[in-house]
Each structure stands twice: as structure tokens, then as C-alpha cells.
Design goal:
It is built from 12 helices and 13 strands. With 337 residues, it is α+β, with helices and mostly antiparallel strands. The two termini are 15 Å apart.
Length: 337
């Protein structure tokens, strides 16, 4: 297949997206596909090399890394999100593998544009993407559908200091539409709460403040309605923040998770229900906490799970006998159906 692996962008997760894109592109090329990585925001000055023997993944990655230094400056004057030749090249591809993370990648805007341009892509559509990206909205949908989730509220920047959170300490503060745990804080007192709100509001104008659940952390992928094995995440220090997610050796993962069969089935069933409620019909990954009484709480859904060397869904797939490249092909297959 001719495949564009779309990465980069302008979100706080740009670098994670590039790592995902690099790994996916390399794996698909090893599987015999004509795959090319493309920065959604900067595009390419050499479109004629895509899908030819002249294409060099390493040269493309060098160009993307160089462009990463120009993102903030470019944003000051640019009015158009898509980079040079991006739409035309995506239209030429058999499918676009979405390696984007965060804003304008997982929020449904790119997916909606691709639907209008007739471009096929991996992952869920624009509506499910938008629902899952908004953690405050997701929480309301969880509560309305009987999905256990920590008690919480959404707080807008203009409401700060005027609206009581009603949440006791300790609590968690996080950007409503962020990812990779960027801007997430666990706070113990009013002083820490103010600092946490300051950090989150610096990233966006809406945050979620929710009850802190002390317990073990898990994740479950759902691919076309089927729950994958449960994986447990055990950071060696602190919680599962950005550093522990992406720094090699900072976190231990255990798959399948060492929990009772009944708890496994309950968590998998909950993950499938979340995917149905949020309209995530292709693939997604749900994050959970489980307290000492084995009560489970869904934190959020990820519509484009990371595919870095330390990411969770490749580890879950490995338990099912799928290597990394086969998983990439599987995600393309289910997205094409």
C-alpha cells in the first residue's frame, strides 16, 4: 500500500507524535509498504519523491526535526494549519496512518477535513475524536451511562476564584483537552491547587478538577469492539506523568496485569462500553485506576494511542502474538472496514 504516516503538528505532544510516526513508518516499510512520514504542519518541499525509490525516511526525519525549531515562530503568522502538499499527498495515498497526538490531531478537526477531502485514515472519526478529547465532556457521558469515573468538575479560566470545585484534597488538576499527562498535577492543599491551576490554564482555558483515587493504574486497548489484555503501569517514582510515560526505564509495565480474572473481565467490559459511548468504533485505549477494594474508575479514552517504544498498546498486542509491524497493519485493516 501507499501510506502517508502523518505526524508532527503544533500541540504540546509534537515530539511524541514524531517518535510514533518514525516507528510506524519504519515498521510499515519493513512490511513491504511504500510508507512515508509527513509533517502535517510543514508538509514537504519534495512531494515528487514520495512513494518512489528516491524517498529517504532518514532525510525526512531530519527535515521534520529541523522544522520543530520553527513551530512557535511559524504559528505567529500562519493562518492555514495544513502544510505544503499535505492534502494532495494524503489524497494520493491508499490510507493515512494517523500518528498525531494532542490538539489538531486527536480533537477531530483533521478527521473532519479528511472526510470532506475523501481521504481515508486510521482511527475513529471526527465526532468520537472530539468527544474523547474533551475530558470534561467525557466525564459527563461516563456518569450519564453508568461508567465509574472519579467525581469532578470542569472549570473555565474566567470562573477561577468564583466557582467552588467542591472537591476535597487530595485532588487532580488537568487540562481538559491535553494529553501525555502534560499539565497534570496531584495537589494536597489550597496553595498547591492555585499553582496547579496556573500551570493548566497556561496550556488551555478549561481544566478538570477531580477526586484523587489512590490505587493501581491500568490501561486497556479496544480494537474493533474487542478488549485487549489489561496492562498495569507502575511508575518507579511519582505518578504516570510525561517523564514516566516516555523516559526509558522510568516505569514498569506488566501485561497481562496480575489481578483477579473477575477484575480483568470487569475492566475490559468497561473499556468496551466506553468505546461504544464515545463512538470509538475503530481502535482506542482506555485508562483506569483500581482502588484497594478493587473498585475501578475510568479516567479517559485515547483515540490515537501512542506507538512509541514505551507505549502500551504494542505491549498488549504482543501478548496476543502480534509484533509491532503486524499491529500497525491490523490498525490499518480495521480502519479500512
Amino acid at each position: 500500500m501507499n501510506i502517508i504516516v502523518l505526524a508532527g503538528g503544533i500541540s504540546t505532544e509534537r515530539e511524541v507524535s514524531i517518535v510514533t510516526g518514525k516507528n510506524v513508518c519504519r515498521a510499515l516499510r519493513q512490511k513491504g509498504h511504500d510508507a512515508a512520514i509527513l509533517d502535517v504542519y510543514f508538509g514537504t518541499a519534495c512531494p515528487e519523491n514520495i512513494f518512489t525509490e528516491n524517498y529517504s525516511l532518514e532525510e525526512a526525519l531530519k527535515e521534520i526535526e529541523k522544522n520543530s525549531q520553527k513551530v512557535e515562530e511559524e504559528k505567529k503568522t500562519r493562518k492555514v494549519f495544513f502544510g505544503e502538499h499535505v492534502i494532495a499527498l494524503c489524497q494520493k495515498a491508499d490510507i493515512v496512518f494517523m500518528a498525531l497526538h494532542g490538539e489538531n490531531g486527536e480533537n477531530g478537526k483533521v478527521q473532519a477535513a479528511f472526510d470532506l477531502f475523501g481521504i481515508s485514515y486510521t482511527g475513529t472519526g471526527y465526532l468520537g475524536s472530539a468527544l474523547a478529547m474533551d475530558k470534561g465532556l467525557s466525564k459527563h457521558l461516563f456518569e450519564a451511562n453508568g461508567i465509574p469515573t472519579p467525581k469532578g468538575i470542569t472549570l473555565k479560566a474566567h470562573e477561577r476564584g468564583e466557582k467552588s470545585t467542591g472537591i476535597t484534597f487530595p485532588c487532580v488538576v488537568k487540562p481538559s483537552c491535553g494529553g501525555s499527562s502534560i499539565g497534570v498535577s496531584i495537589v494536597e492543599n489550597p496553595g498547591e491547587l492555585e499553582r496547579a491551576l496556573e500551570e493548566s490554564f497556561a496550556l488551555e482555558d478549561e481544566v478538570v478538577v477531580e477526586q484523587y483515587i489512590r490505587g493501581r493504574e491500568f490501561s486497556v486497548a479496544v480494537v474493533q469492539g474487542e478488549a485487549y489484555p489489561v496492562i498495569e503501569i507502575v511508575p518507579k517514582a511519582g505518578f504516570y506523568d510525561y517523564k514516566n510515560k516516555y523516559q526509558a526505564g522510568a516505569t514498569d509495565e506488566y501485561c497481562p496485569a496480575d489481578i483477579p480474572d473477575e477484575a480483568t473481565k470487569r475492566m475490559q467490559a468497561c473499556a468496551v462500553k466506553v468505546s461504544e459511548v464515545l463512538l470509538l468504533d475503530k481502535y482506542s485505549r482506555m485508562d483506569f485506576l483500581m482502588d484497594e477494594n478493587e473498585n475501578i474508575y475510568c479516567l479517559e479514552a485515547n483515540t490515537l494511542p501512542g506507538m512509541t517504544p514505551t507505549s502500551l498498546i504494542p505491549q498488549e498486542a504482543a501478548v496476543l502474538g502480534m509484533d509491532y509491524g503486524t499491529l500497525c497493519e491490523k490498525l490499518i485493516e480495521v480502519s479500512n472496514e
